[in-house]
Amino acid sequence: MFIRCLLVLLAGTHVAAAKCKCTPLDSCWPSSGTWTALNASVDGRLVRNEPLAKPCYPGQGYSAALCQQVSTNWFNETWVVDSPIGYVYPLGANSCPPLNASVAVYPICELGVAPAYSIKATNADDVAAGIKFAKEHNVRLVVKLTGHDLEHRSQGYGSLSIWVRSIQNGLKLQDKFTSADGSCNSDWTGSAVQINGGYLWVDIYKFAGDRGYHVVGGADRTVGTIGGYLQGGGHGALSHFHGLATDQVLEYQVVLASGELVVANACQNTDLFTALRGGGGGTFGVVISATIKAYKDQPVLLHNLEVIALPDDSFEDNVNELYKVTTDILSEYPGLSDAGWAGTAWFTVGEGLAYYGHPFLSLLEDNSTAAVDKAKKAMEDKILSKLTKYENGATLKIESQWKQYNSFRDYIFLPPFNPIPAGGTSIMSSWLFDRKSLESPSGNTTQLLQTLNSGNDNIPLMTPGGGATLFNLVAGGKVLDEVPHTSVSPAWRRAYLLVEQIDTWPKNWGPEAIKEKIDRATHTKLKAMKDFSPGMGTYSNEADPYDPDWKQSWWGDNYDFLLSVKEKYDPDRVFWTWKSVGNDGWGEVKGGGLYGPLCETGTSAN
Ligand SMILES: Cc1cc2nc3c(=O)[nH]c(=O)nc-3n(C[C@H](O)[C@H](O)[C@H](O)COP(=O)(O)OP(=O)(O)OC[C@H]3O[C@@H](n4cnc5c(N)ncnc54)[C@H](O)[C@@H]3O)c2cc1C
Ligand SMILES: *[C@@H]1O[C@H](CO)[C@@H](O)[C@H](O)[C@H]1NC(C)=O
Ligand SMILES: *[C@@H]1O[C@H](CO)[C@@H](O)[C@H](O)[C@H]1NC(C)=O
Ligand SMILES: *[C@@H]1O[C@H](CO)[C@@H](O)[C@H](O)[C@H]1NC(C)=O
Ligand SMILES: *[C@@H]1O[C@H](CO)[C@@H](O)[C@H](O)[C@H]1NC(C)=O
Ligand SMILES: *[C@@H]1O[C@H](CO)[C@@H](O)[C@H](O)[C@H]1NC(C)=O
């Protein structure tokens, strides 16, 4: 009898273990009354999501005018980040694009991987209510700020999303940093900005800039602050000068899987603090506030360089010259970086359009001619002097321009704002390059550039089907310093350059063509970069999610520590995302479809 009971119990546990999160199609999905109760507990801030482009489709809710509005804004990142289910980067499976339904390519319009419900959270209690509900009702939980995540980690079929963008409890400048309880002031005696909610970098640039400060944030102004960006590492034009964005974090306020609100800094919950400084978003808890270092603003010198292969009859030869000159430029990057220059360069080779371009900046000590001349001289010695031998006027067009700004604030806000179009279909592969691989490579740099630009059918820069290489000269300098309580890939501390290859495809491509493009990104392009700068790693937020060694590439030897923090703070895996620390054992069961429930798979996640 005892044995029988035991067997029944074991069988019971087994069945319970092979479980899935409830989806709207399951009988275990919470009743509408249950959702209403949740809504009441968050003061009416629960949204039942509808596909954004639903007005474009026949049936209830059809509206040509609304459809037009959605279509117009579909690629407008400013509009996208202000929707609970707006995603700047394409949906993992976009099951309702704003197509004119009469085209009939997409006969149905479903939410797909967009969350079923979103809580427009305004405080820690709303966040805790969402976590508690998801746990109690076995509903998949998602955390979203702006929806920029390239690995779709703020999406999830049949999920409840905690939308932190709507937490807006103000920005505070501290002339001298003071921790939440005043007892943990680390060794930072400078100023700080406390970001109490789901603000964007543009908000902080403005807030700090108006008060004479600058901070390390994203190059793209609509990226979120306290979410995936800060928690995953964060680079931008200023990281070279001050360290990674996550290195700037002095303190977080975090709602844990238990629902408890805690402070994490160098004195308390230090393991959590470390994990939230590089370990990635959506994994350890929901951050509702971050305090970051602020620096007295400084004048900026900008250098714009454009090297264009002349699109004439000898275009192919001109492109070969472009490869050569770019190879020469790359070898000078470490020296240029040491001399105080940083930024992101673009390189692309397509039919009729092939160029290298960089808007690089240098922070100046002051407005003096001496400071400007010193910065100019470094650029002239390292780069411009190397270009003279290519300046015969027959193969390449070379343009060099200087521009001076009184402050970083002016540098950000004076030029016209060109938003990055949202919603493109593309794959990114990336790798960090150390000094040696750039200055004295054992491989052939020209061949690497050719490999990166292969397979794009000679379609130029970011046109669907084409591709581009980004040379993010955002490391070196202060990024090389070891920073206590951080968990980014240790490769960052040896890196000068983050190379990113972006390959795009047209919207009408079928799954096989897309797979071929993705496979080439992983098995040809990423592999070539790994061989070129061996033993390095990459940036988890801008990485190839199909990298077979993603854990090693994104976190290196820090992974095991991060996993132990995950075990401690979220043993029940309340927070689960694709490609994150501790996501093993669960996966999306798609059964050949585009999306499906999140289930315990028992195997390694991949
Ligand atoms: C157009 C574009 C430009 C970019 N530019 C840069 C750049 O200049 N520098 C750079 O370093 N990166 C850049 N990125 C990458 C960017 O850092 C990542 O996409 C990052 O994940 C965005 O974070 P988010 O919170 O805004 O996005 P989301 O997609 O909302 O969230 C990203 C991840 O963080 C989690 N998350 C969100 N909010 C919270 C929270 N409050 N607490 C816990 N988890 C949370 C989500 O669950 C998800 O896993 C860019 C991306 C895009 C698409
Ligand atoms: C939640 O309550 C608010 C306010 O009463 C209401 O406008 C909203 O539609 C409700 N949400 C859901 C999902 O019922
Ligand atoms: C959809 O296409 C039809 C036929 O081309 C056109 O008349 C209609 O205005 C379009 N609707 C929208 C919302 O673009
Ligand atoms: C993009 O959206 C924002 C916010 O809705 C709006 O203010 C802006 O005008 C839009 N831009 C364009 C080009 O439509
Ligand atoms: C640089 O000069 C401008 C005016 O030309 C001035 O407004 C600014 O404060 C100066 N900046 C510094 C750091 O000296
Ligand atoms: C590198 O490869 C290019 C293109 O294949 C070739 O022209 C060049 O000679 C090679 N350089 C070296 C140093 O081998």
From TrEMBL:
Keyword Signal carried by entry: yes
Keywords, in A-Z order: Oxidoreductase, Signal
Keyword tRNA processing in annotation: no
Single annotated GO MF: oxidoreductase activity
Residue intervals of the FAD-binding PCMH-type domain: 111-297
InterPro entries named among the record's database cross-references: BBE, FAD-bd_PCMH, FAD-bd_PCMH-like_sf, FAD-bd_PCMH_sub2, FAD-linked_Oxidoreductases_BP, Oxid_FAD_bind_N
SUPFAM superfamilies per record: FAD-binding/transporter-associated domain-like
Pfam families xref list: BBE, FAD_binding_4
Protein family membership: Belongs to the oxygen-dependent FAD-linked oxidoreductase family.
Protein name stated in the entry: Isoamyl alcohol oxidase
Naturally occurring in which organism (per UniProt): Penicillium chermesinum
Upper lineage: Eukaryota, Fungi, Dikarya, Ascomycota, Pezizomycotina
